[in-house]
Specification:
The complex is a heterodimer of chains A (361) and B (234).
Chain A lengths: L3 H17 L3 E2 L5 E3 H8 L3 H4 L2 E4 L3 E5 L4 H9 L6 E10 L11 E10 L4 H16 L5 E6 H9 L5 H9 L4 H11 L7 H12 L13 H15 L6 H11 L2 E3 H11 L7 H16 L8 E3 L13 E6 L8 E5 L1 H7 L7 E6 L1 H11 L1
Parallel strand pairs in A: 1-5
Antiparallel strand pairs in A: 2-4, 3-4, 5-6, 6-12, 7-10, 8-9, 10-11, 11-12
Chain B lengths: L2 E6 L2 H12 L4 E4 L7 E5 L4 E6 L4 H7 L4 E5 H7 L3 H4 E6 L5 E8 L8 H15 L3 E5 L2 H10 L5 E5 L15 E6 L3 H5 L2 E12 L1 E6 L6 H14 L6
Parallel strand pairs in B: 1-4, 1-5, 8-9, 8-10
Antiparallel strand pairs in B: 2-3, 3-4, 5-12, 6-12, 7-10, 7-11
């Protein structure tokens, strides 16, 4: 039976290791402004975070993770470069009965560093890998930056690229859009009828109500008509993107595959170079890229802010990962109000580590 | 009495429920005066009738204070987390039909589908600086629907009544509400998205997994199920 004391002791061990790696220990509030979290994650976060009402500050949420408050604190006046660590409870509402905890300890490490992002990725991963190695976990890695670069490099309209990028973290909707833009999916009946009416101007004049103005409607109408006249994404290019979505191989093999398709999709070259330099850095930390699993789509459906390297460590079974993390450069720009800094971080769940340790003895 | 059944305490829902059971040889009636909320059941021994507000029946089922209950399938799905783990759907009763739908202003000639709504929401947020508001009282059902569809840049705002008026009153841009004929929507210059059916609700007989299912209650349930011609495995 895993006791709270055992979990706390495990958390302290991990926390000490993070401090030994040069991180400054920081604290974060338990009650966070709901507005910021809702703006970042969207309405879905309501299903996952506990919402409460403060008489003066309005809607508040019980901390669902540390990344947001730690980034906020750093952006408000942290020195550069910086590395922070933290230890504390996070709270996640569970909508289904089952083994998922709604309150658990997290120990985390975050690095803010402009100089060498790939070296930072590798250092973080190897720190986690070293701490977790006695547990025999299965690591998983990915790189959302490559997928984003591929979308940006498509020869299609900026509007279509923006639509795809907006849904990069919602794989099902992304896939639907890509199917439509590449002509693989038939245009739905409702859309055809809509386009017909828009072209002939044969729409019922209904009274304007609500905040969304006539001009906003007109703007989308012209966007729809323009899009209907846009040729589909060329088949070979679309095929490369589909290939990328399903790419799954040991990291070194994935790199040679990506090198192979770069001439056909030159826009991914800088992202592939970063991937290569990260693998080099990992190798210097003693991690063999020929054995490290890589899945190009990894981390797309978890939290909506990773935009580069992502990783996780899994035990046997389909429980939650024992540890996870990734790069979130864009989040610092959102929270930094104009300023930004490359950032990477991750968390370990000491309760899961303790349970695994106890199962081994 | 070893088996409690919760039934809506007034109006058409109560009458239709009584009719449905009556047509299958289980006679339900209010006891005493019109105003007293208790009643009796004839046709199967050992059943106690509990008259409750339809909106409280999900909670009573969840707590296991009643064994069976009649209420709208929309209320069960919206009020109970992981509803399948809490109740069993015994039989749809074929009345009380109402659709939970998503509707937008008819003037939005560019929006026909959920896909369009998603795109309009993105543009709306860029233009206005906040997420497109959808007024509803069915928070769980609507959020699960929109999440499954991968819609972003929206927010749900609570509306417990007169939801169709929120767009005109500028407190929401779209609504998600129950409709049976669509009359009220049209009168308020709203139209239903062609793929915006969140849930087709009807009155349904549910059994509570967490109720006290001793041997006696199970015997009564088996007799009742046989009489009603339904399968009831709790």
């Amino acid at each position: 039976m895993t006791t709270r004391a055992a979990i706390r002791a495990e958390a302290e061990r991990i926390f000490a290791a993070f401090k030994a790696a040069g991180a400054v220990a920081v604290e974060a509030d338990t009650l966070l402004s709901a507005e910021i979290l809702l703006d970042l994650y969207g309405e879905d976060i309501r299903a996952r975070a506990y919402v409460t009402q403060d008489p003066l500050h309005g809607e508040m949420m019980l901390r669902p993770d540390f990344t947001v408050p730690v980034v906020q604190a750093h952006m408000q006046g942290g020195a550069e470069p910086a590395r922070y660590c933290y230890m504390g409870e996070v709270y996640r509402k569970q909508d289904h009965l089952g083994p998922h905890a709604s309150e658990y300890l997290q120990v985390g490490f975050e690095m803010f560093d402009r100089a060498a992002p790939e070296a930072a990725d590798a250092e973080l991963f190897s720190l986690f890998n070293g701490l977790l190695s006695p547990l025999g976990l299965r690591p998983a890695t990915g790189d959302i930056g490559i997928l984003m670069a591929a979308v940006n490099g498509l020869s299609t309209t900026p509007r279509r690229k923006a639509a795809l990028l907006r849904h990069i973290w919602r794989p099902a909707r992304f896939r639907k859009l890509l199917d439509r833009f590449s002509g693989r999916a038939v245009v739905p009946e409702a859309r055809l009828g809509l386009l017909d009416r828009l072209r002939t101007g044969d729409a019922d004049p209904a009274p304007m109500i609500g905040l969304r103005s006539e001009a906003e409607i007109a703007a989308r109408v012209s966007a729809l008509v323009e899009d209907a006249g846009t040729p589909p994404i060329a088949a070979p290019e679309a095929a490369l993107l589909y290939d990328l979505l399903t790419l799954q191989a040991p990291a070194r093999a994935a790199l040679s595959h990506l090198r192979g398709i770069t001439p056909m999709l030159p826009a991914i070259e800088p992202a592939v170079d970063r991937f290569a330099s990260r693998l080099g850095a990992l190798e210097r930390h003693g991690i063999n890229p020929s054995e490290l699993p890589f899945v190009a789509s990894h981390g797309r459906s978890s939290m909506e802010y990773y935009d580069g390297f992502v990783f996780s460590f899994h035990g046997a079974g389909d429980g939650p990962p024992v540890a996870s993390g990734g790069r979130y450069d864009a989040l610092t720009a959102v929270l930094g109000q104009g300023r930004s800094i490359p950032a990477v971080g991750g968390i370990i769940r000491p309760a899961l580590v303790t349970a695994l340790r106890e199962a081994m003895t | 009495m070893s088996l409690k059944i919760g039934v809506p305490s007034k109006g058409r829902l109560m009458e239709k429920t009584f009719d449905w059971f009556g047509a299958r040889g289980v006679k339900m009636a209010r006891s005493g005066s019109e105003r007293e909320y208790s009643g009796g059941v004839d046709g199967v021994q050992g059943i106690e009738l509990v008259l409750l507000s339809a909106s409280e029946i999900p909670r009573e089922l969840s707590a296991g204070r009643i064994h069976l209950g009649v209420t709208g399938s929309d209320l069960i799905r919206d009020k109970l987390a992981d509803w399948r783990s809490q109740v069993v759907e015994v039989a749809p009763l074929g009345f009380g039909h109402a659709d939970l739908i998503i509707a937008v202003p008819s003037a939005w000639i560019d929006v026909e589908t959920v896909d369009d709504l998603d795109a309009a929401a993105a543009a709306f947020r860029r233009e206005h600086g906040f997420r497109l508001r959808i007024a509803t009282k069915y928070h769980r059902l609507v959020r699960e629907f929109l999440t499954a569809q991968g819609v972003a840049d929206y927010q749900l705002v609570d509306s417990q009544g007169a939801t169709e008026g929120t767009v005109k009153n500028l407190t929401a841009e779209a609504i998600a509400d129950i409709t049976s004929s669509g009359e009220t929507l049209r009168a308020n210059h709203l139209k239903i998205l062609s793929d915006g059916l969140v849930h087709a609700s009807q009155a349904t007989l549910f059994a509570a997994r967490g109720a006290g299912w001793d041997a006696e209650a199970r015997t009564v349930l088996a007799q009742l199920a046989a009489r009603l011609g339904v399968q009831a495995e709790v």
